[in-house]
Amino acid sequence: MDLQGELIEHPHSVYDRLRDAAPVCRITGTDGTPAWLVTRYDDVRAALADPRLSLDKSHATEGGYRGLSLPPALDANLLNMDPPDHTRIRRLVSRAFNPRRTEQLRTPIRATADRLLDALGPAGTADLVAAYAAPLPIVVICDLLGVPEDRRLDFRTWTDALIAPDPSRPRAAKEAVVAMLGFFTELMAHKRSRPGDDLLSDLIAVRDGGGSDGEGGGGGDRLSEDELMSLAFLILFAGYENTVQLIGNAIHTLLAHPEDLARLRKDPSALPAAVEELARYEGPAPLAIRRFPTEDITIAGVTVPAGETVLLSLSSANRDPARFARPDLLDLDRDTSGHLALGHGIHYCLGAPLARAETEIALAALLERYPVLEPASPAPRWRPSLRARGLTELPVRYDTARSPH
Questions:
Q1: Pairing status of strand 310-312 against strand 34-38
Q2: Nearest residue to 207 via CA among 99, 88, 102
Q3: End-to-end CA distance of the chain
């Protein structure tokens, strides 16, 4: 079943159909090879926590999954790992994204949001993806890692080439990978010679110092050089990609629900809960990272052979009426506990606290600044990708003066 086009343009109607008729079905995967798509909430949630579903590509059937082609120096990352390596590396970086550290970042995040809105001016039209939703997470994650300002736009270009490849430029993705490898090699060398007060310098110190978890641990947490570079790549890549979609989709959804937008403008204290519902309603990732069964496995009565690709639909699970009543309705008062927009289990999004904070702050700053905020285009375009659910642009009209109406 080839659903690529439909899943980009009309994903939720397709998922409605599949949950009823074929909750586990064979489709053409994101890389053109066969895959099994799982769409019901209970099945997706259980599969996300099932240790028999591996992220390690060595379990893939020969000649099957191809996926994104990355060199070893970028491929030894958490999205390709199972325990114990996954546990070891995640432990090393998890403190950088814990709630306490995120709280410390809220003031600089708000300062960045205000600076971007200052650049828009008091009134006019703008593409809020290019002018706001995209640059905000780039600044935040690059500041966290210590990436020089003059290289940040390069990274956005490379990321876009990997997530939503341009069919007219078949070599663009490969060129982006080569450029990123060169970038990270150069950045590592720079940080080793001139370490700073940033996460990347801290990780290099752990790597070069023999490995310690900073809490009295021994050398068991040592990073290999490929793991170090792959970890930096993943933090920058995922820290940007998920958050830009989360912010952009949230703004787009609220523009389509002006009563909810007005409510949040009047009561910003409701924003944290609203971000959870916005993430459930139109999350940044349609699919979880592909899995490979280490043995034949049965899901919803369907046997999936060992080594074949399994795609778990987070978007479909979050709109499953068996879990969320009237799921196609945006309800800011909904109990969203258990939504899967940022994953579940040991591979739950490491940067989830930071992504939530950035989205909440981005919305608060935007709604506080502009009493008038409305779409400038009737139908913004979605990116042609199943890896990320996001808009190519979000044209809006805005004004700091209240409308006479």
A1: parallel
A2: 88
A3: 50
* Statement: residue 99 has pLDDT above 70: yes
> Which candidate, 198, 191, 176, 185, places its Cα nearest to that of 225?
185
| CA 311/CA 119 separation, integer angstroms | 41
404 compared with 129, residue with greater pLDDT: 129
Contacts of 80 (CB under 8 A, 6+ apart): 55, 56, 57
DSSP 34-49: EEEEE-SHHHHHHHHT
Give, for 124, the enclosing helix (H) or strand (E).
strand 123-127
To the nearest 10°, report the CA torsion of 20, 23, 26, 28.
80
264 contacts: CB under 8 Å, gap ≥ 6? 254, 270, 271, 274, 332, 363, 367
Amino acid at 240: Y
pLDDT-derived band at 174 (thresholds 50, 70, 90) equals confident
**Contact residues for 103 (Cβ-Cβ < 8 A; gap 6+):** 357
Helix H or strand E segment including 331: none
Q: What are phi and psi of 26, to 5 degrees?
A: -90, 125
Place of tokens 């499953």: 320
H or E element at residue 1: none
- Measure the CA angle with vertex 299, ends 297 and 305; round to 5°: 35
The Cα 29–Cα 36 span in angstroms is 8
Name the β-bridge partners of 35.
27
User: What per-residue confidence (pLDDT) applies to 404?
Assistant: 47
Residue 366, CA distances (Å) to 113, 243, 318, 354 in order: 8, 16, 26, 18
Which range among 157-171, 207-221, 356-370 has the greatest average pLDDT? 356-370
Q: Where are the beta strands (DSSP E) in 146-296?
A: 292-293
Angle among Cα 397, 399, 404 to the nearest 5 degrees reads: 105
Find, among 311, 314, 337, the residue nearest to 246 by Cα: 314
Torsion angle of alpha carbons 310, 315, 321, 322, nearest 10°?
40
Inter-residue contact 207 to 229 (CB < 8 Å): no
